[in-house]
Specification:
alpha+beta, seven-stranded mixed beta sheet, 28 strands
Length: 852
């Protein structure tokens, strides 16, 4: 480090000496250039001042020419022959503009009361143009040194004349005579031959010599320079020259005056006066340069002292930064800016991440990054490096790198272009290990993908078409389209194209409603807060048939401003058919309910009659019995009729109560063992007397039952059998036949047997229309015989509900006028104790039942 400091001091000293020498050379060159530039600038200044003097003179003369033109305009209205009027006008003009004369004709001069300058008349050139200047001369009138402006006048009779205005030379000398360099310079007005026309009152101005060229001695000046100067005056050029004038080198600057004259304005300044100002400026410049050199020397000395302190501070700072550099928890690498990209430097954390130690850290230096990264990652990394170099901005990177042993790990960092200690461009890359985070991220992606696949799979079971839409970009992505669909999907590139192709297949009845799926309509709907759009419609698919389909679009996008949607669609023919069937069922149920309501109303009407009849009988027989208490036989007959009416009334009430329990769901089926054969025999014995009263043939034909003991509700079974047999007896005319059969069959219910109860009669039968209402409450046939029979219309409804509650089945076939067949099938489980009835008894009972 000390050697470095000594070398630095030596370098700075040599540099300072070289700088001083360079400054001296530059100062010499600078002074030479400045002297030349100051001289040229001084000449330009004198020329510019001369031009300004000429411009001032020209402006003054132009103003007087303008006055003469105004006077000429007034004179043009008069003929030359009207000399009296012209004289009057000139007199009037001279009261305002003095020394103005009009010359025309044979030397006619107006105004007549003012004499004309004969010298001016002698120099007047009739062919000199419309305006001219008469050179200075001694006026024949005033004896003063004057010059005249001449302007041609055109009279109204086409005659010509001349306006002449006289000026004293001394009145305009101050106009162009300027003071140069503290009154060291002065001016002349000369003509093209060098004759002095107007002299400056300056003390150095020659008052005797008439020609400027005569003032310049040919012995003291170059004859060629004098000849060139004379030619410049004749050519009316602008320029400058240096001559010896009155024994002193003098600068002559000249420029033409113009105004239709050959005059030239010449400024004369001693060269010593010009150089005096130039030298003063040079002295100031030298003082400035000397001050700058002294200042730079002082700065160099201060810099050397400061550099020593700075170098010491930088040494400590370098050591401190090196410590921080290696103590950082982030890996920091310096990378070259040219390909192939190499590691120039790496801190200790970088060594650790890449599997290096202090002993083998030299292997990292100039390590080719292609060896420390997979190929694809290096290509991406190289592209990001180029972007950082071109833009000069920080670039975030996530790359995979190789360890020393060949294993890979994920890194995340920031790369930026900067300058090294030598000012060379270099890339600084700060990174850290994110392998665990990356693995967790990949696991989360896998889980999310699995969830998405599961969701799509589950959704695709119900919806064979799932399409992702970007309504803002008018884009479609077919997430899932089940193979074999009768619709062409998957080739559309935009939603507008998809909508147009689907619209053509929509049934005309639904096409207007389908327009809510137009791109603009969906965008407006979702912008208005609508979350989904649903439509059920008919579409013509590839089988050329109309099918019911459902389309649903759902929107949810919390991540961007684009309107996103999911379109799901499926055929709903089966659902629609089920819905129509359900609607038909509901319609039928409504009709049944309506019919039941009407039947209930009819029932109430019938019940009022049916209840009134036995009640009247009870009340009447009670009154008769009370009136004949002493007549036992009559009282006995009344009591018998009262008993019959009471039983009939009780039957009506029981039917109503049973139906009420069934409709409210409170009716329960008992489960108790009983003998099915004995129960049927008891029912037969109960109904047979009713058949005999009507002279009907009642045939009981039982088959042999394998298991008569079963588990069930004997009360409700007896009620079912009695209802069916009682109706058979009730609606079969006298002499008709009623046949009852019982049998046993196998059952689909596990552990059960089906017991079949079949009752056939030759009664009045039923119409097909009534059979559809047979099991509805309060329904009764319109047959006259049925109307004559007492009843509530609840028997068959109760029977059907009881059979359903016992998991049984009731079947009915009937022909009007020929009779009906009722078949009841009930499944029962066998009772543990299965007592059998003697077959001879059943046969005897069956035999005894045949007859009238």
């Amino acid at each position: 480090m000390k050697k470095l400091v000594r070398n630095t001091r030596r370098t700075v000293t040599v540099g300072a000496a070289a700088l001083a020498l360079a400054l001296c050379l530059l100062t010499t060159h600078f002074i030479s250039n400045v002297k030349t530039q100051l001289w040229q600038q001084s000449i330009n200044t004198i020329l510019e001042s001369t031009r300004q003097g000429r411009s001032t003179l020209a402006v003054q003369l132009d103003e007087n020419y303008a006055d003469l033109r105004n006077i000429a305009g007034r004179l043009a209205d008069y003929p030359a022959s009207d000399s009296a009027a012209l004289d009057t006008l000139l007199r009037e003009i001279n009261t305002l503009e003095s020394s103005v004369h009009l010359i025309f004709g044979e030397q006619v001069c107006l105004p007549s009361d003012q004499p004309c300058d004969q010298q001016a008349l002698a120099q007047l050139d009739p062919h000199g143009g419309d305006q001219a200047v008469i050179d200075p001369h001694i006026s024949s009138v005033t004896g003063m040194d004057v010059f005249d402006l001449v302007l041609e006048v055109d009279f109204s009779d086409d005659q010509k004349g001349y306006l002449i205005k006289e000026f004293e030379v001394r009145s305009i000398v101050d106009t162009f005579t300027l003071s140069f360099y503290n009154d060291a310079g002065f001016s002349y007005v000369v003509d093209a031959d060098g004759d002095v026309l107007i002299r400056s009152p300056h003390p150095r101005s020659n008052k005797t010599v008439q020609n400027l060229l005569d003032m310049l001695s040919s012995q003291s000046n170059d004859s060629q320079a004098l000849a060139l100067f004379a030619d410049s005056l004749k050519s009316a050029e602008t320029g400058w020259a240096i001559f010896t004038y009155e024994g002193e080198r003098t600068v002559f600057c000249f420029t033409p005056v113009g105004l239709h004259s050959d005059w030239a304005l010449i400024s004369i300044i001693p060269e010593a006066a010009v150089n005096a100002q130039t030298h003063a400026l040079l002295r100031q410049s030298l003082a400035l340069v000397a001050s700058a050199v002294l200042g730079i020397s002082a700065l160099v000395l201060l810099y050397l002292r400061h550099m020593t302190k700075t170098q010491r501070r930088l040494t400590h700072q370098t050591n401190y930064i090196s410590h921080l550099y290696n103590a950082l928890p982030e890996a920091v690498a310096l990378i070259s800016t040219t390909q192939p990209y190499r590691l120039l430097q790496l801190n200790r954390e970088g060594w650790r991440l890449m599997g290096y130690t202090l002993e083998n850290s030299d292997e990292v230096l100039n390590l080719d990054l292609r060896a420390s990264m997979p190929k694809l990652d290096y290509e991406h990394f190289a592209g990001q490096i180029e972007a950082a170099i071109c833009s000069g901005e920080k670039i975030n990177l996530v790359e995979m790198m190789k360890n020393r042993d060949g294993s890979v790990f994920w890194t995340s960092g920031i790369i930026e272009k900067t300058l090294d200690e030598n000012g060379e461009p270099v890339l600084i890359y700060a990174f850290h290990d994110i392998t665990k985070e990356k693995q967790a991220e990949e696991a989360e992606k896998q889980r999310t993908l699995q969830e998405r696949l599961t969701l799509v799979s589950a959704l695709s079971n119900a919806y064979p078409v799932i399409i992702s839409l970007n309504l803002t970009q008018d884009q479609v992505q077919f997430v899932y389209v089940r193979p074999g669909l009768m619709i062409r999907l998957g080739e559309q590139e935009t939603y507008s194209q998809l909508y147009a192709e689907l619209e053509a297949s929509i049934d005309l009845e639904f096409r207007q409603d389908y327009r809510q799926f137009q791109l603009n309509a969906l965008q407006e709907a979702f912008a208005g807060g609508i979350g989904e759009v649903v439509l059920e419609m008919k579409m013509k698919l590839t089988d050329e048939q109309l099918h019911w389909t459902t389309q649903i679009i759902h929107v949810n996008n919390p991540y961007s401003e684009d309107q996103l949607a999911i379109l799901i669609s499926r055929r709903t023919d089966e659902q629609r058919l089920k819905a129509e069937r359900q609607q038909e069922i509901l319609k039928t149920a409504l009709e049944n309910a309506t019919a039941a309501s009407a039947a209930k109303s009819q029932f109430l009407s019938n019940m009022s009659h049916d209840i009134r009849t036995p009640m009247n009988a009870i009340v009447g027989m009670t009154a008769i019995a009370g009136a004949h208490l002493n007549d036992p036989e009559r009282v006995q007959a009344c009591l018998r009729k009262i008993s019959l009416s009471s039983k009939h009334l009780l039957s009506l009430i029981n039917d109503i109560l049973d139906m009420s329990k069934i409709e409210s769901g409170k009716l329960t089926i008992a489960q108790e063992p009983f003998n099915f054969a004995e129960l049927i025999t008891e029912v037969v014995e109960l109904v047979r007397p009713q058949a005999e009263e009507k002279n009907q043939i009642f045939e009981f034909q039982p088959e042999r039952l394998e298991k008569e003991g079963v588990v069930g509700d004997p009360l409700r079974i007896r009620q079912v059998c009695i209802n069916i047999l009682s109706n058979a007896v009730k609606y079969t005319p006298e002499g008709g036949t009623i046949t009852l059969e019982i049998s046993q069959r196998s059952s689909l219910y596990k552990g059960c047997q089906n017991f079949v109860f079949r009752c056939a009669d030759t009664g009045i039968g039923m119409e097909p229309e009534f059979m559809t209402r047979l099991f509805q409450p309060f329904e009764r046939s319109d047959h006259p015989q049925a109307r004559n029979e007492n009843g509530t219309g609840l028997g068959m409804a109760i029977t059907k509900n009881l059979v359903d509650l016992m998991n049984g089945e009731i079947q009915v076939t009937s022909t009007a006028g020929q009779g009906s067949v009722f078949t009841v099938i009930l499944p029962f489980t066998a009772a543990k104790s299965n007592r059998r009835t003697n077959s001879c008894q059943l046969a005897e009972r069956a035999h005894s039942g045949r007859g009238r």
